[in-house]
Amino acid sequence: MNILVCIKQVPDTKIIKVNPKTNTLDRSSAPAILNPYDAHAVEEAVRLKKIHGGKVVVLSMGPPQAKEAIKKCVEIGADEGYLISDRRFAGADTLATSYALYKAIQKLMDEDGIDLVLCGKHAIDGDTGQVGPGIARRMEIPPLTNVIKVEEVDPAEKMIKVRRKIENGYEIIQSTLPCLLTVEKEINEVAYSPLPNMLRAARYNPIVWTVDDLKDVDMKQLGLKGSPTIVGKMWPPAKSDGAQMLDDEGDVKKQAEKIVSLVLEKRELFEAKGGER
Amino acid sequence: MNIEEYRGVWVFIEQRDGQLVDVGLELLGAGRDLADKLEVDLCGILLGHHVKELSNELFEYGADKVYVIDDPVLANYRTETYMKAVGDLVRKYKPEIFVYGATANGKDLASAVATEVMTGLTADTTILDVDVEKRLFEASRPAFGGNIMATILCKKHRPQMATVRPKVMKKLEPQPGRQGEIIEETIDLKEDDLRTKVLEIVRNAKKAVNLEDADIIVAAGKGIKDEKGFKMVEALADVLNATVGASRDVVEAGLCGHDHQVGQTGVTVTPKLYFAIGISGAVQHTVGMANSETIIAINTDPDAAIFNVSHYGVVADAFEIVPLLTEEFRKALQVKTEEGGVAHV
Ligand SMILES: Cc1cc2nc3c(=O)[nH]c(=O)nc-3n(C[C@H](O)[C@H](O)[C@H](O)COP(=O)(O)OP(=O)(O)OC[C@H]3O[C@@H](n4cnc5c(N)ncnc54)[C@H](O)[C@@H]3O)c2cc1C
Ligand SMILES: Nc1ncnc2c1ncn2[C@@H]1O[C@H](COP(=O)(O)O)[C@@H](O)[C@H]1O
């Protein structure tokens, strides 16, 4: 079973800073990491490969540094990694991203069949979760999003059953193969990489393609030009009048007492439901 | 694409097991405003099996028209069937704005449809507006790791699409008896030709954590540091009979489950009382709690952004003040019980 995983290198949004003067993102303030959901997707691909054989290929679009994220996937157990990197891809929104990735997937498919495509639930830098379903639509295969468990795969019968997280529960859905899954973190634990993988990753050099390596590319659908959405204005979130500060010269005990009396004034909080408890 | 041909504001109406999901009604509320400004109809898109009757409720909540496709293949949500049905409707009736609830299925559908009809889609928006003169939809969302809001525009493609999280927009007061037009369409798909099948749907009887309906939420941020700090916050929640909320960083540190997360990628809440303890106030967090009735923030940093959205603030070390609060509340609430006033365990 050949599995393709789309992975993205993202700034660690937990640490990234915004320049308050220009309202722009200071990318240098945050280290780049493999999108955490994509790590789970690679882990799942490696797990399925162990059971069903075949190979795991990862694909990413991004700047040359994104090779590091691909090497991380090799550490987890991916067999091969491809990076599509070209200035002409830059500025892509989700529609243009899914187009570029799809063009690369087509080229990969010419070489080898693909039975399953995996993506993360979303990339933590934008949180859109739109690229996975977009790729599936372009490949004309079913997307199964928010997957928390692969219940069953039958490569011979070309069938897969997965558990999808939905509001207040889950559903079991069956699909023909090939199809595309986007995975949640619950799907697995990303295991520590065995030493041979680490060594292989350290030496591994991902294959890099530019636009010219892809076939039949409609340049109008790439990058900024191919992106229907644009960022209009940006502004810092509204500041309200601000809080009334209970300072009491920093006397914690007095501050605590004040909070307690403020809260207790809201009697309805403690009365209305009292009887039910 | 001649964008002049595109008119009208559409809302995808999600239903589960024949029941309307609230977010659709909330979006009719927001959509009504957009449609009035643009002087066009507000339309609901309702798909399913035996769902036509739900249209009346949609009219009461502000829809002028409801496009219904009632077919057994649409009984349960599947991207395959819903994408086809919605894609066909868009091509035929050409709306200029189309919004979806940012639920698991709403996001899935919107993403697939955006590619199907080749248009722009903005995820998880929190503010919707329109530039009437240019008929340009202004969909705004928090961006870039917090601290900033961005308006996303889609100038050259139609429809202009966005997903909106539940609880962000407000339903209108229903107007009993308000009428509208039902337009029935069909879908040409046979079950045997489909590639996906929903085998089973399991809904938890009750959510373990129900932040949405809580009157009091005591929320922990990364300022509480570790498990000990989290326990301390839980103890305060306990005496107040409150539900424990958390910032994303606390969830990611593994101190509690994602069910507790408040904010853009968690839940949106509107309790009567919200304690923000050791939470910095990144916009992704505050979009999920800023509409709470009373917000009390505790933070060691006097410049923390959380104070901007709070009603009361205390610059204090959580590790000092929270145990004091727990103790004071315990005393106060117990005394009340003894006086025969309020039963509180
Ligand atoms: C796409 C995207 C979506 C996101 N979605 C969400 C979301 O849904 N919900 C969410 O919460 N976040 C979300 N985030 C993350 C968000 O941007 C912030 O990173 C996060 O909310 C910060 O959490 P925090 O306030 O707990 O931690 P920090 O920002 O680390 O703040 C800790 C605070 O504690 C204070 N503190 C430290 N020690 C003490 C002490 N002893 N006593 C009292 N105070 C103390 C500090 O002064 C500081 O203000 C999202 C980010 C992105 C990029
Ligand atoms: N530039 C990219 N290169 C490879 N995969 C991507 C890229 N952007 C998004 N993806 C995939 O699509 C998923 C969802 O991303 P997003 O729609 O940006 O939230 C990610 O988890 C990845 O699997």
From TrEMBL, chain A:
Transmembrane region(s): none
Signal peptide (UniProt feature, chain positions): none
Pfam families (UniProt xref): ETF
SUPFAM superfamilies tied to this protein: Adenine nucleotide alpha hydrolases-like
Residue span(s) of domain Electron transfer flavoprotein alpha/beta-subunit N-terminal: 22-217
InterPro entries according to UniProt: ETF_a/b_N, ETF_b, ETF_beta_N, Rossmann-like_a/b/a_fold
GO MF: electron transfer activity
Protein name: Electron transfer flavoprotein small subunit
Species of origin: Evansella caseinilytica
Biological classification of the source: Bacteria, Bacillati, Bacillota, Bacilli, Bacillales
Automatic annotation (TrEMBL), chain B:
Entry's cofactor comment: Binds 1 FAD per dimer.
Keywords assigned by UniProt, alphabetized: FAD, Flavoprotein
One MF annotation (Gene Ontology) recorded for this entry: electron transfer activity
GO biological process, alphabetically ordered: fatty acid beta-oxidation using acyl-CoA dehydrogenase
Residue positions binding FAD: 247-248, 261-265, 278-285, 299
Record keyword Nucleotide-binding present: no
Protein origin, superkingdom: Bacteria
Record domain Electron transfer flavoprotein alpha/beta-subunit N-terminal: where: 9-198
Tagged with keyword Flavoprotein: yes
Cofactor dependence: FAD
Gene3D superfamilies, sorted: HUPs (3.40.50.620), TPP-binding domain (3.40.50.1220)
Pfam families (UniProt xref): ETF, ETF_alpha
Family: Belongs to the ETF alpha-subunit/FixB family.
Protein name, entry field: Electron transfer flavoprotein alpha subunit
